Amino acid sequence: MRMRLILPLLSTALAFAQQQQSPKPPTQQQRDLKVERLDEAPPAPKGNPLPPRSYAVIVGISAYKNLPENLQLKYAERDAQSIYTILISPEGGNFKAENVHILDGAKATLAGVRKEVNEWLPSVAKEDDRVLIYFAGHGFMYQGKGYLAPYDFDLNRVAETGFPMDELGTTIGTKIHAKSKILLTDACHSGAISPEDTESLNRTLGGLQKSLFSLTASRASERSFESPELKGGHGVFTYYVVSGMEGEADTDHDGVVTADELSEYVHTQVREYTSEKQNPTSDKTNFDPAMLLAYIPSNAKPAAAPVPKFGTLVFESNMDEVEVFLDGVSKGVASKGKPLTIPGIAPGEHSVKGVHQGYEPDGPRQEMVYPGQDSTVSLKITIARRRNRAADDLLNDGLKLYNNGNEQNYRKAVALFEQALATEPTLSKAAFYAGLTYGALFEEDKAQEAYKKAIEIDPDYAQARANYGGMLLDVGAYDEAIRQFNAVLQRTPNHATSLTLLAQAYRLKELYPQAIDAANKAIQLNPRSAEPHMWLADSLRNSGKFPEARVEYERYLKLSDFESKLGGKLNYYALGYLTGFGRKKRAAQRDIWSDLRSLAWFGICDCERQAKRYDLAIQACQTSLTYDAKDPYAHYALGLSFMHDAVNTGNVAGLDPALRHLQRTVELNPDLAESSIAKKNIAAIQNYLTTQAR
């Protein structure tokens, strides 16, 4: 009888509650209290257009599922990552990270490529937008037609398993509606995609007029080469595409790399590097030469006098693993007996520096680049960084205080770290730990400056760069944080902290498939690290995969159970895991641990609520609130669970706690979207209780 009385009167309230149970939870269901900033593009130099809204699909395959060993590639996936990094750079392509989809390795199946190129791009691109498609892998000719080879390509079934180039042409020409269309292909026989090489594509692409810029790695009859000497290994074509978009192709120094400039730069440099064995192609009648490809405002300066050719610097080193910087930008690593060659450099003076952690750098100093010539630069790393005993003592005293935790100790510790750095300005560890400690005190600006100082002292300080990226997460600079993590991972692919924080960055941008992939890689490296399980769980939950998410939340809770000593008492500040989590209220290691456990129990509550197991949801949300009693999201989910449980069981008593927790949601944060729905639920419950009291 009670069930029938409750149902009619609460139907409105439950309708509002049900809005929260869609297969893919909306953004407001996340517990992160910070809202991502709407980053504005930097002002363009006078007379130059701002970069348009842009979308890209990047494909890179090195190891093919069905091809023999002699046809496997080495660097295609590294190439794809390099393209991704330059595209999302604010001094580069200026693409938003969420607008760039990357398929590498086994993810680049024929079905996957078709879904991204034929379905996703046409669904998002509008008339005034910019679209870029990049492919690095194999290309094949079969019965006069060109095919790009996806991961599951089979030489015995070329037509069935290859991605036809004319299909790509049709998609670009008729399905994708964008003002600017860019096609970059680094594949053997990729020249077959150019209009002049394939009659069918000529018919398809001929009507595109000036909207398509197609730059391919080689002519139809040529190979595309890879080289281990180019920044640790790259396809020759892609290396120069990235270098050009970094600013080398900006020959008039107006801060913009145009299609015409990139085409000319890549064509010249690849021909020269391969002794004319590889000739990139583009049809200049088919694109607007002023099409904007990269935006480098810092490159804008009065144009120098024209020079006939570019030059090359060859860096030799007396020590292994010396990072080479050209004009302040890392260009790769030189080792003893293994020089680093950097071709395609504009003639004139350039700043060079060699860095090896623990040693005094060689440079910065100026080196002259001559047109059409190779110049050797010898890097001498010989002086071990002198240990200043007084600075070391200050650093060690600061570490003791830092490891003891609590705000008072942190403030004393950071003063010692700053004093150590003043005593010995090259003590990068002092700057690094100052960054950690400022982070523990939630003084983000000072933390960022300290991390940048540590990186300036030792540019190959991976942990400092990873933690700097973490601080960028905390202030909402997600795209720049992703670039920092990728910079670490390109050098050290198995850097677990960067992978963990990259998962968190993608999660914050709601790029859940990428977050899941990064978290899984971090877990493979260290299955007993708790935090990757947390970001994996949260990304699964926000993808609507509730059973899998619950399993990962439970794994996190088990691994972070300090009392059982399964995970040990992790120092979240030293690992960088506090960053990007959301604004905290206190400065203490235990609070970070509590906040994360609160989030995990909330996640379990939400998974159980979605499964309509309201009794289990209530228990989980109540546990979440024992760690953070002022979490409005947990109060909201708990209130809804009590409401649903009251309807399912006919237990009117459950409406009282439902009312209390929904009211608490509004009290804690009246501006939340959940609070708006909670107010309607509160009104419905109060109306029902008033009716029953009469």
Descriptive notes:
It is a single chain. This protein is an alpha/beta fold and 694 residues long. Among the domains are: 2-31 and 595-693, Serine Threonine Protein Phosphatase 5, Tetratricopeptide repeat (Alpha Horseshoe), CATH 1.25.40.10; 54-299, Rossmann fold (3-Layer(aba) Sandwich); 311-379, Immunoglobulin-like (Sandwich), CATH 2.60.40.1120. Helices cover 47% and strands 14% of the residues. It has 24 helices and 19 strands. The strands form six sheets. The protein has a five-stranded parallel sheet with strand order 2-1-3-7-8, with helices on both faces. A four-stranded antiparallel sheet has the order 15-14-17-18, with no helix packed on it. Helix 2 runs parallel beside helix 7, helix 16 (512-525) runs antiparallel to helix 17 (530-542) and helix 18 (546-559) runs antiparallel to helix 20 (589-610). The longest helix has 22 residues, at 589-610. Mean pLDDT is 79; it is low at 1-48, 194-209, 303-308 and 563-590.
